[in-house]
Amino acid sequence: MRARLNIADVVGEHVRLTPAGKGRLKGLCPFHKEKSPSFQVDVEQGYFYCFGCKAGGDVFSFVQRVENLSFGDALRQLAEKAGVQVEAKYGERSSRDLYDVNAFALSYFRENLPGPALDYLRRRGLTDATIENFELGYAPEGWDGLLKRARSRGLSERQLLEAGLLIENPESGRVYDRFRARVMFPIRDHLGRLVGFGGRVLDDSKPKYLNTPETDAFKKGELLYGLDKARAGLSSGAELIVVEGYMDVITLHQHGFTGAVASLGTALTAEHATLLERLGASSLVLMFDRDEAGLKATLSGLDQVLGAKFRVRATSVPSGKDPADALLAGDDAGIRQALAGGLDEVKYRVQAAVEAHGLETTEGKRRVLMALLPRMQNLDPLDEGAERMRSLTCELLGIRPEALLEWIGSKAKRRSLTDTHLAGMSAHRSEEDRELALLRQLLVDPTLLAKLDGTTPWRNEAVRKVMLAAQGARSPDDILEVFRGQPEEQLLIRLMFEGRDTGAISRDTNQLYEQRVTAYAAAAVDDIQVGLSIDSMRAEVDLLKRQVAGAPPAEQIGLLRQIQDLQRAIEAEKRARRGSA
């Protein structure tokens, strides 16, 4: 059968292919995100290979991967394309048997729709065309209506049990219909295969909704209701609207919002993300009937995989109604308003971290960075969510993008994110910033003043005064006493609080905290001094460069040598700093 199939035709249904040399075609890989094509098809040999993600194989393995099929189902699908009849081997169990049994059940449910169920659907605002398009039906009252019909058509109880259409009493062995007195919603996978059903009661009895149980074909953690219809717009960049109920999906489609889908009583999963990425989805809107606190909880608990693969927002209809009821009341504008706004997942995570920890202190900034690190550390250029989070974090914390990337890439710095590191990451850093950071550490332990060589030319006047007054001080109180009632007092108090932001430190652990802070302060003093030394040498280099431009040729050589010596010294200081990090 492989000889009757052109792999380029099969792959071309999923990938836009262009010539890439004799007998070869290329395109963007359907198995991972990429901007430049690394996926190739060898038409003569009948194989594909991706130089990016290393996926490769023949036409059968391609269909298996791209459509998420077993080999048997891929074989049958391709056999239909090639016009070849494939017979199942003895004892082989095929999910196609389940599709056929479900199709039989659907015809039974559709036949029983006229009556109370049809009246209910029309009261909910559905047109006859929509009811037909979504193949809605009704499972009548009674214990064995479907079972009797199946027996009359030669289907066995075992086939219906395997499809989840019957329930067996383990004590008596009696079997009966699973779905009774319910409006029936056929559930198809992204390929349009009928894998199961959802049923809704017409009254207030419980459970309100009942789904097909897990079968070989029905895996609710991998299914999205309505995806077979919504997937058509994904390749062109359309947003996928994730709602909570079958009626929401159907009503939205009827009103032109054809990107609507619903999960089957589960949260969105990594399996959903893999499937949607493969189908070309790039943006998800979670439209739920909840208040803002509920939407925030939804985003907070969202699988990180989804955030890494898609732009995600959470929103609700302004009227507070669910989408189906809002549209029934004629509030199409409210739906459009909800889809245009909402809480952005990346912005929400950043704002939540800032609200939890604050940006007023270095400790707060440190905690914000550590809270956001798991989401920011994916450096894949195609992960737009991580890139947006890093950009927003830099903006809010006032740090340089390149410095943030360096910190993310350094495990040592992530383990011990010091005040010095934060000062160095600042977009507005200066020698005075370092001086204040140094003063903050000396207020933690004034005896560290002895580590300074006394030659530093302080640029900040307040720092210069405090350094002079701190000679011989044994505690922060000794230093504060000198500046009681003076302008420097408020600066010192602020720096003391920043240096010892204990947060929720308990009494039992306070002693250990004090020991760690003191040890950290000693290391920070060394680090800051190195930074000040580097800044001073850089300033001297800048001065010499300006002098070179106006100096006679004979003097330029000497100035250039001085610049080289200073640059070597700067690199040596940097290496020493990295070695101690």
UniProtKB/TrEMBL annotation:
Q: What's this protein's name?
A: DNA primase
Principal EC category: transferase
Q: Which reaction does it catalyse?
A: ssDNA + n NTP = ssDNA/pppN(pN)n-1 hybrid + (n-1) diphosphate
Q: Which SUPFAM superfamilies match?
A: DNA primase core, Zinc beta-ribbon
Q: Where are the zinc fingers (CHC2-type)?
A: 29-53
This protein's species is Deinococcus aerius
Q: Which cofactors does this gene product need? A: Zn(2+)
Q: Belongs to which family?
A: Belongs to the DnaG primase family.
* Domain Toprim span(s) in chain numbering: 238-318
An example GO BP is:
DNA replication, synthesis of primer
Written domain comment of the UniProt record: Contains an N-terminal zinc-binding domain, a central core domain that contains the primase activity, and a C-terminal DnaB-binding domain.
Q: Which UniProt keywords apply?
A: DNA replication, DNA-binding, DNA-directed RNA polymerase, Magnesium, Metal-binding, Nucleotidyltransferase, Primosome, Transcription, Transferase, Zinc, Zinc-finger
What PROSITE patterns does the record tag this protein with?
IG_LIKE (PS50835), TOPRIM (PS50880)
Q: NCBIfam families in the record, alphabetically?
A: dnaG (TIGR01391)
